[in-house]
């Protein structure tokens, strides 16, 4: 068994964020630093109070065998880009080690080093050299690169005159012809129009599957990941939460964005609650059988509660809820308008005196399907004005209790699973001759 | 499993670790040697894009400087040139070396901050960036040198045999520019103050160094102190080797300057390598 081409061992990366007011970006003026040091010494402190440690990676470990195509997914802020930067030797790990057994080329950005004044031809050479190709290599692949990019006619015009589509096509064409042992690609790469995107993805697939290179592929496009990656590492808040099968990884990734799993999103501090000077959102809850819970049953009613506080009198408030599936697609939208709901909500669009209110929406039993759902909650004023909007504020799971399972026990597809009325009748007697 | 081009070296195996200085670094520098040329070429090519006169503009500045300085320092200020040397030549040789130093220093100091987009997105040994910016200064030097030759032909002035030492003095200027430049470049990444310090150094240095006048104008007792400025030695050295001015070269000064430049260069590289790992995070 060959040795792993990449070994990541307990890699951690710490950044220091400062919270001083006058700061812009990561650099500072000597005067600030000196003044700071003096005043700190005067106060007898060894460490500045206003610095915070931020661990972008908190101990990541995994191994990659030669020829594997590994997807790396995670929410924004999970540490993916930091991990790539550390693997690409752009920044140093604070702790841990990485063993590389091969040349690494990383594509963290399309068109790195492109200079707008230079022509397309010149930029191919420049970009190729920056990405690590030798001049001979570039000359050898020049025609292929030009053909792939489809900008042959404009090769001798300065890149600043290119459309953005041409720009990224040229940039990607250069990047696509790198030949390292380990290739690291970050998110960006399916660019251009739909046809070119297909070409990009096709080329990436060819590189991954056909040429036998080791590829680390970071993307939010779970479809592509599922397609070309045999293995997926899922990162969340700087740690690996899954390392294995891609489909499972994608499911975990979709679910991992939610912080609340207990059925309630509360905002107890009115000053910080979502909203404005007129109305504030206090809580959003999911109830099943009268209890606040994130686990509901298929054959029971699910209630969605929105609690809000009116700071001004006389507002005509209404409420609305969107139900979303695991991937963020909206399944249904409902509001407490009389014509759009059952029964009559007496507080809909009626002037609200100052105070706290709770509105409740009931999703009937035998309506939802088994699986995970998310909610977005909205508070509306005068029907059309959105005062408070909280997208995907809560998630909950619906469990199959077997109520509709007397006949069929297999997998049941669908965003919802309502019980609808079915009736079959015989139309006529037809003789089969 | 085919792994591509014959240009690739044997697969390497190394460890990235916090705080570990890589032995790979100098090997990497060699492997990325073409990048020096590419980045320098980029800077030069971009300069003359969309111009009509193109490279001709590179000739204007040295010529204009020589003319203006001759008028100001020789006619107006009344400085004297040693026997048999036309004042414009004296000035041009001084300008030649000073401009190289000033350009190299400026380019080097601003190189890291100017390439921040590269530093945060691609790996290559970071030393490539400042050094390639100095290569640009070399190209300018060469062009001005051609003008100098033309001017010598015009004055029918034959350079002394000592011109073979010119590369040595150029190397001292290079060392000084690179040493000081690396310090400024590394410091500038975190403390942007140094962006303002630089023009001051260049301006001040210009008047202190014997660019527009000859060192023989400096009184004897101040000569040693004066030679602490490595560029004074360089410019004197240039004049000594090209124009054959005897007694122009001050030997104690030369040794002192070599020591200073050597220290600057070594410490500059050391500091740069030390701070290099934080560049991408701080820039």
Reading the helices and strands of chain B in chain order gives EHHHHHHHHHHHH
The whole-angstrom Rg of chain B is 21 Å
Class computed from helices, strands and strand pairing of chain B: mainly alpha
Helical residue percent band of chain A: 10-25%
Instruction: Give start-end ranges of low-pLDDT stretches of chain A.
Output: 21-25, 257-261
Biggest pleated sheet of chain A: 6 strands, mixed
**Portion of residues in helices of chain B?**
55-70%
What's the helix-strand series of chain A?
A: EHEEHEEHHHEHEHEEHEEEEEEEEEEE
The whole-number mean of residue pLDDT values of chain B reads 82
Q: Enumerate the spans of chain B where pLDDT stays under 50 for 5 or more consecutive residues.
A: 1-10
Rg over CA atoms of chain A:
28 Å
Counting DSSP E segments of at least 2 residues, the number of strands of chain A comes to: 20
Number of helices of chain A: 8
Number of strands of chain B: 1
Tell me the span between the first and last alpha carbons of chain B: 40 Å
Total of helices of chain B: 12
- Largest contact between protein chains? A-B, 55 and 44 residues
Mean pLDDT of chain A: 84
Strand content of chain A: 25-35%
Strand order of the largest sheet of chain A: 5-6-7-3-8-9
Largest sheet of chain B: none
């Amino acid at each position: 068994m060959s040795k792993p081409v990449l070994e990541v061992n307990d890699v951690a990366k710490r950044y220091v964020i400062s919270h001083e007011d006058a700061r812009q970006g990561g650099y500072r003026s000597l005067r600030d630093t000196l003044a700071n040091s003096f005043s700190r010494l005067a106060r007898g402190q060894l460490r500045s109070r206003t610095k915070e440690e931020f661990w972008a990676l908190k101990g990541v470990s995994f191994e990659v065998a030669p020829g594997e195509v590994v997807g790396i997914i995670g929410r924004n802020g999970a540490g993916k880009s930091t991990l790539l930067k550390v693997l690409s030797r752009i920044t140093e790990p604070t702790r841990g080690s990485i063993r590389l057994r091969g040349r690494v080329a990383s594509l963290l950005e399309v068109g790195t080093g492109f200079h707008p004044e230079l022509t397309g031809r010149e930029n191919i050479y420049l970009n190729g050299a920056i990405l690590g190709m030798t001049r001979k290599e570039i000359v050898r692949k020049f025609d292929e690169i030009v053909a792939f990019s489809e900008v042959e006619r404009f090769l001798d015009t300065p890149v600043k005159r290119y459309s953005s589509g041409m720009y990224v096509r040229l940039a990607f064409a250069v990047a696509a012809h790198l030949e390292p042992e380990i290739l690291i690609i970050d998110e960006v790469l399916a660019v251009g129009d739909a046809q070119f995107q297909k070409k990009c993805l096709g080329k990436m697939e060819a590189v991954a599957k056909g040429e036998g290179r080791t590829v680390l592929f970071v993307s939010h496009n779970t479809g592509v990941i599922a397609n070309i990656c045999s293995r997926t590492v899922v990162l969340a808040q700087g740690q690996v939460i899954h390392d294995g099968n891609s489909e499972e990884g994608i499911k975990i990734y979709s679910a991992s964005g939610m912080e609340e799993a207990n059925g309630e999103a509360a905002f107890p501090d009115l000053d910080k609650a979502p909203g404005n000077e007129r109305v504030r959102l206090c809580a959003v809850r999911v109830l099943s059988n009268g209890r606040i819970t994130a686990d509901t049953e298929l054959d029971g009613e699910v209630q969605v509660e929105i609690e809000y506080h009116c700071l001004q009198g006389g507002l005509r408030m209404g409420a609305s809820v969107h139900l979303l599936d695991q991937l963020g697609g909206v399944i249904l939208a409902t509001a407490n308008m009389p014509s759009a709901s059952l029964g009559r909500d007496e507080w809909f669009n009626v002037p609200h005196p100052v105070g706290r209110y709770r509105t409740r929406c009931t999703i009937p039993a035998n309506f939802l399907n088994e699986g995970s759902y998310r909610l977005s909650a909205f508070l509306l004023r005068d029907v059309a004005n959105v005062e408070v909007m909280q997208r995907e504020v809560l998630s909950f799971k619906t469990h199959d209790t077997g109520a509709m399972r007397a006949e069929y026990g297999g997998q049941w597809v669908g965003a919802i699973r309502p019980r609808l009325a079915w009736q079959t009748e015989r139309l006529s007697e037809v003789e089969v001759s | 499993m085919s792994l591509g081009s014959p240009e690739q070296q044997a697969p390497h195996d190394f460890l990235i670790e916090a705080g570990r200085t890589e032995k790979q670094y100098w090997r990497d520098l060699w492997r990325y040697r073409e990048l020096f040329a590419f980045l320098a070429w980029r800077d030069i090519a971009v300069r003359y894009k969309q111009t009509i006169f193109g490279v001709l503009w590179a000739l204007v500045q040295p010529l204009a400087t020589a003319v203006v300085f001759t008028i100001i320092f020789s006619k107006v200020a009344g400085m004297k040139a040693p026997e048999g040397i036309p004042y414009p030549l004296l000035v041009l040789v001084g300008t030649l070396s000073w401009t190289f130093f000033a350009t190299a220093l400026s380019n080097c100091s601003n190189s890291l901050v100017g390439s921040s987009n590269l530093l945060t997105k691609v790996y290559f040994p970071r030393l490539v960036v400042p050094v390639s910016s100095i290569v640009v200064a070399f190209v300018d030097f060469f062009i001005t040198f051609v003008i100098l030759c033309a001017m010598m032909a015009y004055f029918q002035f034959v350079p002394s045999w000592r011109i073979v030492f010119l590369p040595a003095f150029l190397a001292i200027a290079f060392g000084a520019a690179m040493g000081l430049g690396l310090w400024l470049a590394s410091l500038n990444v975190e403390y942007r103050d140094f962006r303002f310090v630089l023009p001051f150094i260049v301006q001040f240095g210009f008047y202190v160094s014997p660019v527009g006048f000859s060192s023989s104008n400096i009184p004897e007792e101040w000569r040693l102190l004066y030679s602490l400025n490595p560029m004074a030695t360089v410019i004197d050295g240039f004049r000594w080797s090209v124009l054959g001015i005897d007694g122009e070269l001050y030997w104690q000064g030369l040794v002192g300057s070599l020591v200073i430049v050597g220290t600057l260069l070594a410490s500059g590289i050391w500091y740069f390598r030390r701070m290099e790992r934080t560049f991408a995070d701080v820039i």
